[in-house]
Amino acid sequence: MTTVLLAFALSSLWTVAGVLDAPPSSYLLAWFGIVLALIDLRHHRLPDALTLPLGAALLLLQFHRLGEAALSVLLFGGAHLAVRTWRPRLMGGGDVKLAFGLGAPLALPSLLPAAILSSAVTLALAGVRRSRRVPHGPGLLAATWALTTL
């Protein structure tokens, strides 16, 4: 059943990206995003074996705006690192590593909306699950995909 849902979600995201003539990073985010979100939802972990290659690939895809992408990486990841440092119970280390990588495809003006949207998705997930302990990775991935695709 999970495989069917994974295939449906991936094909839906790729279809939307194709219709909107989205950048290549949207397809990469769709594939990695669904897999990482499922892992994070089930195990509350974001494996380095997936987050680090995703971050590197997203940065490489921004070769035409590498300076701005590097600054976005530092700002978006740094903000999440600051939260992790000040309030470690609010965010895991995997979320911080993921945020560094997800900063690459985001334009500088999109960083604040990405943070707000990812937090809103995480809060909605907490409401649906009726739990205070929910992963932040799915929210980060959904917000980044939406802001780079739509």
UniProtKB/TrEMBL annotation:
<feature type="domain" description="Prepilin type IV endopeptidase peptidase">
    <location>
        <begin position="28"/>
        <end position="125"/>
    </location>
</feature>
<dbReference type="InterPro" id="IPR000045">
    <property type="entry name" value="Prepilin_IV_endopep_pep"/>
</dbReference>
<feature type="transmembrane region" description="Helical">
    <location>
        <begin position="106"/>
        <end position="128"/>
    </location>
</feature>
<keyword id="KW-1133">Transmembrane helix</keyword>
<protein>
    <recommendedName>
        <fullName>Prepilin type IV endopeptidase peptidase domain-containing protein</fullName>
    </recommendedName>
</protein>
<keyword id="KW-0812">Transmembrane</keyword>
<dbReference type="Pfam" id="PF01478">
    <property type="entry name" value="Peptidase_A24"/>
</dbReference>
<keyword id="KW-0472">Membrane</keyword>
